[in-house]
Amino acid sequence: MSFNNLDQLYRTVIMDHYKKPRNKGLLEDSVTIEMNNPTCGDRIHLTLQVKDGIVENAKFDGDGCSISMASASMMTVAVKGKPVDHALKLSTIFSEMMLGKEHDDSIDLGDIEALSGVSKFPARIKCATLAWKAMEKGVEKESHSQ
Questions:
Q1: 24-46, pLDDT tens digit by residue?
Q2: Boundaries of each NIF system FeS cluster assembly NifU N-terminal domain copy (predicted)?
Q3: For residue 99, what are the domain limits?
């Protein structure tokens, strides 16, 4: 697949998650994290249900650019039903990808790979990582409450 076709595919995946976000909404009886990116105004309200070391459910609400909201949608899909350790590993891989660093490619990132091009735009990295940072804080908060 040529670079232009791959770039177009990635844009299509990002816009699909932005226009039809997965796991949009809020959960009751959950860990709640609210974060914002004051630089551009992105805001996320993430709710997680973690039980016995598993992210049983994840939903988000918020406002922001297509990168921020698509990333939140992709993140909730990626971590839902996964062990906390796996969710945190995905977050580390995602952060490395955003910084243009070599990362563990043994884990299939699925749609998340579509955000790899964000690393070329430093001003947008915080947009892409906002939901992931919220998830990290959420599982940390949950582990301290048990």
A1: 999 999 999 999 999 889 999 99
A2: 10-127
A3: 3-145
